[in-house]
């Protein structure tokens, strides 16, 4: 109590000034129509601004929810497109005019939508955490893509989460090819810039050009063929080298990555079991 009294006594002049200021302003606004209108107009402006800020904040969170819903719907539509494409393929006659049609086994896959809840881009070995897991059908070794292109491969899975090794990690290599020539190589990250990676195993006789597009080759069970990987940013080769040094600008911006799709290759187990059979 003594401290409170000392505080009031110490700042009594300030409190007196504030009280008198409030009384004077009240008298001015109540007796002068012009000042009153200015005060009300300013108050309304401030209140309107506060309402705008409030609506912006509300709309921001609603927009995030809407984006999540759109991602789910987009993935569902992509699954329907894949299904319709496969059904259409069965209606096309083969070269032998056979009456038996079937979907190519490597094309039997569907997407599982997921959201990035944690990620890194500034480490040598980066990882991405997804909000979907085994209960959603996700398993290790499944490929992960976004609307822009290849993201990475699922490494470990719990019931509700999954950890992905992205292409920003030298632990994985992605088989890709040139869209215009089908010549394939391996994408391997050097551990430097999150925007770029390196393409290896491209022999010196292959014709290259800046801007050439790279897509997945389909030579692995992780990714079907045709998914964007990136484009050639720069390349060079020495007289003594047999292979190019190729710098690739990645299709995916990992700093803004939020929604992804996990590829569920329906014939994965059958293919892997067959490939494990030793040669006789």
Overview of the molecule:
The protein has a domain at 105-266: Thrombin, subunit H, CATH 2.40.10. Helix 2 (12-31) crosses helix 3. The longest helix is centred in the N-terminal third of the chain and has 58 residues, at 33-90. It is built from four helices and twelve strands. Helices cover 34% and strands 25% of the residues. 22% of the residues are buried. The termini are far apart. It is of the alpha+beta class.
Overview in brief:
By secondary structure, the protein is α+β, with helices and mostly antiparallel strands. The protein has helices at residues 2-10, 12-31, 33-90, 268-275, and strands at residues 109-119, 128-130, 143-145, 150-157, 162-166, 174-178, 184-188, 196-200, 213-216, 228-236, 245-250, 259-265.
CATH class of the domain at 105-266: Mainly Beta
Low-pLDDT regions: none
Discrete helix count: 4
CATH topology value of the domain at 105-266: Thrombin, subunit H
Structural class: alpha+beta
Q: Summarize the helix and strand pattern as letters.
A: HHHEEEEEEEEEEEEH
The geometry reads as elongated
Q: In the CATH hierarchy, what is the superfamily of the domain at 105-266?
A: Rod shape-determining protein MreC, domain 1
Salient structural properties:
single chain; 280 residues; alpha+beta; Thrombin, subunit H; six-stranded antiparallel barrel; 4 helices; 12 strands; elongated
How are the elements arranged and paired?
Blueprint: H1 2-10, H2 12-31, H3 33-90, E1 109-119, E2 128-130, E3 143-145, E4 150-157, E5 162-166, E6 174-178, E7 184-188, E8 196-200, E9 213-216, E10 228-236, E11 245-250, E12 259-265, H4 268-275
Antiparallel strand pairs: 1-2, 1-12, 2-5, 3-4, 3-12, 4-5, 6-7, 6-9, 7-8, 8-11, 9-10, 10-11
Helix pairs in contact: 2-3
């Amino acid at each position: 109590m003594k401290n409170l009294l000392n505080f009031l006594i110490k700042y009594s002049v300030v409190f007196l000034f504030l009280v008198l200021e409030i009384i004077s302003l009240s008298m001015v606004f109540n007796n002068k129509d012009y000042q009153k209108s200015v005060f009300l107009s300013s108050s309304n402006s401030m209140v309107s601004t506060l309402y705008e800020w409030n609506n912006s904040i509300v709309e921001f969170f609603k927009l995030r929810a809407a984006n999540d819903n759109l991602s789910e719907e987009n993935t569902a539509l992509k699954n329907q497109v894949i299904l319709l494409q496969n059904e259409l393929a069965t209606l096309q006659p083969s070269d032998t005019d056979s009456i038996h049609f079937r979907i190519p086994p490597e094309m039997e896959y569907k997407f599982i939508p997921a959201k990035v809840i944690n990620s890194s881009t500034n480490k040598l070995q980066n990882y991405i955490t997804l909000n979907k897991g085994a209960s959603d059908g996700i398993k290790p070794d499944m490929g992960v893509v976004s609307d822009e292109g290849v993201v990475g491969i699922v490494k470990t899975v719990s019931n509700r989460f999954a950890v992905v090794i992205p292409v920003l990690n030298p632990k994985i290599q992605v088989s890709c090819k040139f869209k215009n020539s089908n010549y394939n190589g391996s994408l391997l990250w050097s551990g430097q810039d999150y925007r770029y990676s390196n393409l290896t195993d491209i022999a010196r006789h292959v014709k290259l050009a800046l801007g050439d597009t790279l897509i997945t080759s389909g030579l692995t069970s992780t990714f079907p063929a045709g998914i964007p990987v990136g484009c050639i940013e720069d390349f060079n080769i020495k007289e003594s080298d047999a292979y190019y040094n190729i710098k690739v600008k990645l299709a995916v911006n990992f700093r803004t990555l939020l929604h992804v799709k996990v590829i569920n290759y329906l014939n994965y187990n059958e293919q892997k079991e067959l490939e494990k059979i030793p040669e006789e």
